[in-house]
Task: inverse folding
């Protein structure tokens, strides 16, 4: 009997699945899609993003919505993989009410959905910051990299390290994961362009937790400074181990080193570390400060970059819809291309560039466990 | 530099060894490789976090409580993912353990959130020995792990309960004939295994931090440890763990840091090719 | 176990009907559904490769996602760097992966059972490490992008629908070939090894060679799946080819049942539906998926197909008894 029920259940599920594809039709809400990993390795990013989405949705709807309609942010789990991201993306794109889709905060996933964005013909904003994604977006009709690309940010940090801190030789340590590998290459190129020397580039496989092997190698080089490109958990671990091993050279890090999660985990060890990022929770940007405060009040945690970024993406898309005066996908895309000077919580956006749309970044140094801005970068 | 690598290699390796030992205990008892052992590590870490950070207890007490809680989880795991399927083929049990692994991972995420967490060290600070700076936590890990191994050895070899566990591992049917309640004995084994692995989670959490996916890497290295040490051998598992830890550190420093993880598996495959029985021969006969 | 299943014509008919139904899918559903089914069919090929190894030959491998990756990157290299067409890429991916699997099989199958499984876990991790770091071959961590879609003699598959049909055709061909294998003497040799390797050896089957051939066939299936994946998604990243993915394939075949290729089909469908159909549950989706796997294994340790077969046999028996009673 049990087995028969199971068979029936399976049949029912098959039927249900074949029906899910149907439906649609226009209604009174404007939907904006959001694909983020809600499960898997990068689930924390998804939780920030969905929290931020809830706040922004309410904010915009309380202010009267867009074009007199309420907005709704539809979230789909990208599972943290490129195949999952494409499925989630197509699921959103299949809904005719969805006007635009925000991609995950990972360049690989965004590159994976770029092809689908072309064929689905829907405005897509990528949250990734890699130079590869920049080229992809510049070649694409429908994708935008709504963020400052790492190429500008990394070069700016190295410039600061070389000219203002006075470090001339560097050892680079990086994760073999995509974003960090990209950043490490950018750091390396920037240093060589400035005339500095790169003593060594040491990499570790994602998921490594004990960096003794990498750090002993780095210590032997005796460079003026260490440059690290990692994700936030590993950033916290590696900086703790660096300081515990008695290496007290200046450390220049990727954006993860200014992230509240990394700072929380690493404790005192992360003090004095320089990093380059687009966002800090205690940002001087008035819009950003307001959002950051609201986020912290609502969820009782620091507002991470993943949250602020979703806020800006939604606002930029809504602005484009407003300017277009319609929810027609192509018209919204065209309106997006004309947004050349939009003030967001993180920075100002120039969407006509398609790639590298965010115009500013921050060089921060962690002081007393607070990321303190020491220089603002603006690119024209 | 060598001292530095040696100490961290041993500390990390001994933890792999403990996880591997947990797996071997289960393997000897029921003849199944537990594919969810790494997640016991993660869950134990989160329990330790709950007692230490949320309830504000002392870290050592938290570790003990966490390991007891993990023991209970181990028994629940045994009841749902092994005992309910004990008549089925081994591959069905492996798959149900994988299901359990997903449940543990996602359960931890829903309970404790997906943002990585940290907890207190057993002892803060570090000490300098022969030019190498060594964190006290590493020393504590080595000490506690050795203590646990000694306790497990005494339990298995010198006590009545140990004899029961060994007897069940040798032959379930025979031991049920002589009046050993098999489910209790197997339950105890899972309790012990999960409790041991759970403590490791609490020990690693302050230096590697807690996340719901931390189990996967540690679990796979424990696998390697088992194979290198010799399938089904408890001392083999520990030696295997140490070898994995040392290969990881020295290979990473002298051969290639990029292919650190790959190196471990190259060693694993080399062992399989040239010494498939591992370093130690198994004590209990291979099960059909 | 060795005797051929009498139900084969039924299951073959059911699978044909299913294929026909699938062929109609693009007409009725959205691009999303079509894409999900295409991805599921690629998974099906990999699950089929697990079926050949585990269901037919009794060997449990965790390296299938790695072999899938080898096929995908081989095809990607051919399409991007040498300018070869889809057919060349296909042939190279299938032959290359099969050859690799065959050679590795010779080394690994000197090990029995669990030891082979461990070696395959090792192989999986090594392959993933290579995909992530070997830039000339795989594009490194950044991956390989802009891989051209399927092109045959100047005709290009641009829509999801046309890609869907290409994937479907490959799946059907693969299924038919595996069905033939099931009936061939080679297939029977596989099953003999599965049931008792020592007996098989004593009957004159070279078990090392036979198992390596099984691994090569499963490699060929993975290679085909990889070539399809490369052209379907246009982008390859090391993040797809992981140990986790291999475990998903194993879960799929076990849930479907290891007794016939239909098990691979059922398992792929059930898991895909679990993962895609319950998207609306968001946060809890993965948890429910895990619980579902445990429950299915508890109540259907032989898989859905195994359960169905047992049910069918019970009904037959009851009928026989009823007949005997009425006499």
Result:
């Amino acid at each position: 009997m049990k087995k028969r029920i199971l068979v029936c259940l399976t049949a029912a599920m098959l039927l249900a699945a074949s029906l899910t594809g149907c439906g649609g039709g226009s209604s009174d809400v404007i939907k904006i899609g959001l694909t983020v990993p809600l499960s898997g390795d990068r689930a924390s990013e998804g939780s920030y993003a969905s929290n931020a989405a809830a706040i922004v949705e309410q904010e915009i709807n309380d202010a009267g919505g867009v074009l007199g309609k309420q907005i709704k942010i539809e979230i789909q789990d990208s599972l943290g993989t490129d195949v999952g991201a494409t499925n989630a993306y197509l699921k959103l794109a299949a809904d005719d009410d969805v006007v635009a889709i925000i991609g995950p905060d990972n360049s690989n996933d965004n590159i994976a959905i770029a092809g689908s964005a072309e064929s689905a013909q829907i405005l897509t904003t990528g949250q990734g910051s890699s130079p590869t994604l920049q080229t992809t977006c510049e070649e694409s009709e429908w994708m935008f990299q709504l963020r400052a690309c790492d190429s500008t940010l990394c070069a700016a940090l190295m410039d600061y390290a070389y000219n203002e801190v006075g470090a001339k030789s560097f050892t680079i340590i990086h994760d073999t994961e995509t974003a960090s590998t990209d950043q490490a290459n950018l750091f390396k190129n920037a240093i060589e362009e400035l005339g500095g020397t790169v003593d060594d580039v040491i990499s570790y496989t994602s998921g490594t937790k004990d960096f003794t092997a990498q750090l002993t190698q780095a210590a032997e080089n005796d460079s003026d400074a260490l440059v690290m490109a990692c994700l936030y958990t590993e950033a916290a671990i590696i900086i703790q181990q660096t300081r515990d091993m008695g290496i007290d050279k200046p450390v220049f890090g990727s954006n993860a080193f200014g992230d509240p999660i990394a700072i929380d985990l690493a404790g005192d060890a992360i003090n004095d570390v320089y990093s380059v990022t687009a966002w800090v929770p205690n940002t001087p940007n008035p819009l950003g400060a307001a959002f950051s405060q609201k986020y912290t009040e609502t969820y009782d945690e620091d507002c991470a970059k993943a949250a602020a970024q979703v806020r800006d993406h939604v606002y930029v898309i809504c602005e484009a819809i407003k300017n277009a005066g319609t929810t027609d996908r192509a018209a919204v895309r065209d309106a997006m291309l004309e947004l050349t000077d939009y003030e967001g919580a993180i920075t100002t956006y120039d969407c006509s560039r398609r790639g590298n749309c965010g115009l500013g970044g921050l060089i921060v140094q962690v002081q007393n466990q607070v990321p303190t801005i020491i220089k603002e970068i603006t690119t024209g | 530099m060598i001292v530095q690598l040696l100490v961290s290699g041993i500390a990390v390796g001994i933890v792999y060894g403990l996880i591997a030992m947990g797996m071997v205990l289960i393997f000897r008892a029921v003849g199944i490789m537990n594919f969810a052992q790494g997640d016991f590590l993660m869950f134990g870490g989160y329990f330790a976090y709950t007692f230490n950070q949320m309830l504000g207890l002392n870290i050592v007490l938290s570790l003990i409580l966490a390991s007891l809680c993990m023991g209970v989880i181990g028994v629940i795991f045994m009841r749902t993912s092994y005992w309910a399927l004990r008549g089925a083929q081994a591959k069905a049990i492996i798959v149900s353990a994988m299901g359990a692994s997903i449940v543990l991972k996602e359960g931890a995420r829903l309970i404790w959130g997906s943002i990585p967490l940290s907890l207190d060290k057993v002892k803060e600070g570090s000490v300098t020995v022969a030019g190498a700076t060594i964190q006290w936590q590493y020393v504590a890990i080595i000490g506690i792990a050795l203590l646990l191994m000694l306790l497990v050895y005494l339990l298995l070899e010198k006590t009545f309960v140990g004899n029961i566990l060994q007897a069940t591992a040798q032959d379930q049917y025979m031991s049920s004939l002589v009046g050993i309640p098999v489910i209790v004995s197997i339950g105890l084994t899972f309790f012990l295994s999960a409790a041991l692995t759970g403590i490791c989670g609490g020990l690693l959490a302050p230096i590697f931090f807690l996340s719901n996916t931390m189990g996967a890497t540690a679990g796979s290295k424990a696998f390697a440890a088992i194979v290198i040490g010799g399938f089904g051998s408890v001392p083999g598992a520990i030696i295997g763990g140490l070898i994995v830890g040392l290969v990881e550190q020295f290979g990473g420093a002298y051969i290639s840091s990029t292919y650190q993880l790959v190196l471990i598996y190259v060693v694993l495959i080399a062992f399989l090719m040239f010494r498939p029985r591992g370093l130690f021969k198994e004590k209990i006969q291979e099960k059909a | 176990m060795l005797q051929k299943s009498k139900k084969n014509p039924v299951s073959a008919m059911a699978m044909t009907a299913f294929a026909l139904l699938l062929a109609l899918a693009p007409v009725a559903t959205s691009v999303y559904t079509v894409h999900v089914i295409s991805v599921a069919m690629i998974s099906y090929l990999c699950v089929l490769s697990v079926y050949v190894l585990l269901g037919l030959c009794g060997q449990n491998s965790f390296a299938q996602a790695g072999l899938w990756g080898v096929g995908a990157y081989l095809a990607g290299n051919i399409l991007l760097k040498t300018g070869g067409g889809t057919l060349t890429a296909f042939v190279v991916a299938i032959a290359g992966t099969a050859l690799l699997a065959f050679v590795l099989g010779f080394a690994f199958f000197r090990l029995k059972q669990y030891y082979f499984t461990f070696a395959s876990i090792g192989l999986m991790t090594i392959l993933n490490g290579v995909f992530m770091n070997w830039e000339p071959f795989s594009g490194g961590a950044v991956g390989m992008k802009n891989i051209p879609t399927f092109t045959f003699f100047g005709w290009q598959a641009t829509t999801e629908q046309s890609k869907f049909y290409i994937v479907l055709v490959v799946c059907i061909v693969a299924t038919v070939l595996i069905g033939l294998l099931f009936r061939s003497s080679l297939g029977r040799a596989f099953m003999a090894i599965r049931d008792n390797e020592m007996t098989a050896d004593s009957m004159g089957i070279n078990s090392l060679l036979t198992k390596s051939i099984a691994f090569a066939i499963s490699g060929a299936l993975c290679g085909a799946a990889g070539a399809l994946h490369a052209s379907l998604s246009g982008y390859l990243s090391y993040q797809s080819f992981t140990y986790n993915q291999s475990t998903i394939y194993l879960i799929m075949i076990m849930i479907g049942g290891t007794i016939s290729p239909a098990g691979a089909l059922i398992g792929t469908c059930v898991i895909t539906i679990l993962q895609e159909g319950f998207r609306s549950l968001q946060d809890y989706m993965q948890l429910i998926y895990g619980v579902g796997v445990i429950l299915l294994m508890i109540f259907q340790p032989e898989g859905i197909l195994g359960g169905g077969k047992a049910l069918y046999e019970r009904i037959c028996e009851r009928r026989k008894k009823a007949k005997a009673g009425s006499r």
